Amino acid sequence: MDHSKQLIAVIDEPGPERDALAQAITCDGMSVFAADNIEYLPAGTALIVAHARAVPRQQWSKLILRLPTLVVSDTRQDADLIKAIDVGLVDYIVHPLRHAELLRRMIRKAIELHELALERDRDRERLAELNESLETHLALLRMDQQSGGHIQRRLLPTHPKVINGVYYDYWFAPSLYLSGDFLDYQRYNERYSTFYFADVSGHGASSAFVTVLLKYLCNRWLSEWDGQQPERLAPNWLAALNRELQDTDIGKHATLFVGVIDHEDKTLHYSLGAQLPMPLLVTNGSLVRLAGEGMPVGLFPDVEYPSLSCALPSEFQLWLCSDGILECLPGKTLDTRLKELEQLVSESVTLEQLRDRLAQMNVLLLEGDADDEANQDRDALPDDLTIMMVSGFGHAD
Asked: Which residue from 253, 257, 308, 312 is spatially nearest to 284, judged by alpha carbons?
């Protein structure tokens, strides 16, 4: 027997009809094994051609499960043929010797379809294994992200907090487990307190790593500051951070606002790197955007950042927002959304009021997305969103 050929098993009662059927099937690419029952079939059998009269009715189901099966018969009224059809044979042909070429074509097609089905099953098994592996890796990644998010939140300052009579508070809402937004505020001594507000490009793990670096560097630089020239501290910090991000070569940049409050002179010394939206200062019922502009931090080498100052009255509110807030405001242009933000800030006395107004507006904007599992925890905010409020003086520590 030529093992390079596909083996076709012919099941029929012994005799000249079976021999003629086997001869009709035999051709280039196919060899035939003839038998009178289904108890023994050679290994490597590709397909069975069974005469309706040769297989007991109760064995058709067993036969169909083993191999693709074509049934031949001498008449369409054959009761055994009808039974074979009922259990799901591949196909049938009546008077096969009259249609030998058609029979051979049907055999080739049935084998091809069977091999495709087997390949599909193998692919399905491989996909199931890959999917299981992917689900495992995603679960591990999710656990890592959740742990990282917990650690990142622990790095944030306690809130609300009063430092030298000035009140600090914030709302932190990452779009994923980890965030590219970060902030901090610290007491330097009885006269000075410092704070910064950062938005690292992108979000997720890589951006969160930059916020950890930012926390470490700012703590180090604050510990090295001698308390002199407070107006130079903010621009020097930004210039130093710009060099650090350039040297790490991680492809990340950030927008930052750094402030130093002189509680004695009631002055805010600050610098900024492409902060958007600009900080909003509310005093005596009026709202203004803080002046100044600067380049993003980490994009360009040897950048000089501005040294800016403004007087602070006894009662003031300074609002800082990450650019994620713009995704939650109505309006087709940036100016329209910025004006909407200014309106919300002017109507809000506390951080909770601004957050609630923003959440109500966001529900209207995102109506219909409430069932999105990825957004259920935060009203479907599309980006990291952080709001910080600084107000004072005169709060009790």
From this structure: 312
Quote the DSSP letter at residue 326: G
Residue 138, CB half-sphere, CA atoms under 13 Å: how many?
Answer: 6
Checking if the pLDDT of 362 tops 80, the result is: no
Neighbours of 215 (CB within 10 A): 18
Q: Can you tell me the distance from the alpha carbon of 215 to that of 193, in angstroms, rounded to the nearest whole number?
A: 16
What global pTM score does this model have?
0.70
**Are the C-beta atoms of residues 186 and 281 closer than 8 Å to each other?**
no
Q: 313 with 385: CB under 8 angstroms?
A: no
Secondary structure E strands in the chain: 6-11, 30-35, 45-51, 69-73, 91-94, 161-163, 166-173, 181-187, 192-200, 254-262, 267-273, 280-283, 286-289, 308-311, 316-321, 385-392
Distance from the first to the final alpha carbon of the chain: 97
243, two tokens: 């060099």
Is residue 173 a contact partner of residue 386, using CB atoms and an 8 Å limit?
yes
| Beta-bridge partner residues of 238 | none
More confident residue, 37 or 378: 37
> In terms of Cα–Cα distance, which of 86, 54, 88 is closest to 72?
54
Question: Are 282 and 345 within 8 A, CB to CB?
Answer: yes
Which tens digit of pLDDT belongs to each residue from 39-68? 778 888 888 888 888 888 777 777 777 788
pLDDT (average), residues 250-265: 94
- pLDDT category, 370, cuts 50, 70, 90? very low
List of residues 6+ apart from 86 with CB closer than 8 A: none
Contact by Cβ (8 Å): 342, 280? yes
Element (H, E) at 60: helix 60-66
Task: Write the secondary structure of 76-130 as one string of H (helix), E (strand) and C (coil).
Answer: CCCHHHHHHHHHCCCEEEECHHHHHHHHHHHHHHHHHHHHHHHHHHHHHHHHHHH
Name residue 392's beta-bridge partners: 316
Percent of the chain with pLDDT over 70: 92
Instruction: Please report where in the chains the tokens 């012919």 appear, as a residue.
Output: 10
Using an 8 Å Cβ cutoff, are 304 and 235 in contact? yes
Q: Is 24 helix (H, G, I), strand (E, B) or coil?
A: helix
What residues pair up with 259 in beta bridges, in sequence order?
195, 270
Q: Which residue has the tokens 């805010």?
A: 268
